[in-house]
Design brief:
With 141 residues, the chain is mainly alpha-helical. The protein is 58% helix and 10% strand. The protein folds into 2 domains: 50 residues; 71 residues, Orthogonal Bundle (Arc Repressor Mutant, subunit A). Strand 2 and strand 3 form a beta hairpin.
Length: 141
Amino acid sequence: MAELHVVGALRNKRAELAGVVSQLEKQVAQQRMNLTHLDATMRLFDPQVRPNEIRPKQQRERSAWFRSGECLRLIYDELRDATQPMTTRDLAERIMRVKVMPTTDDRRRELVQKTLLGSLNRAKETIVRVETAGVVSWRLV
């Protein structure tokens, strides 16, 4: 026999999720309309333009640990003071200490490392990747 309170809770959750999906579908339809209008406006100024060839910008998720630009600034601070190239793990541990985060939490350190890697890979002009004996390190140019 079905538990009525469980079924009721599941029905409520389904109604909530269906409402979210419906709202997102409306937003997608609105944004598609906005794109159509923008494409038409671009064609007014340049009839040869091909809007479909414009690559979409990737939306990045905000980091819970760093304000905008803070991660890269902290990386620069650590690499500037380093006497030799630093591994991503060393960078993560030092930056976690600066941010007063527990360095013993392996999962959090892995996530911070992934965040740092994203910043390191975007700073190709100023930070170079150095590989020695299979170990990847980073240094300022």
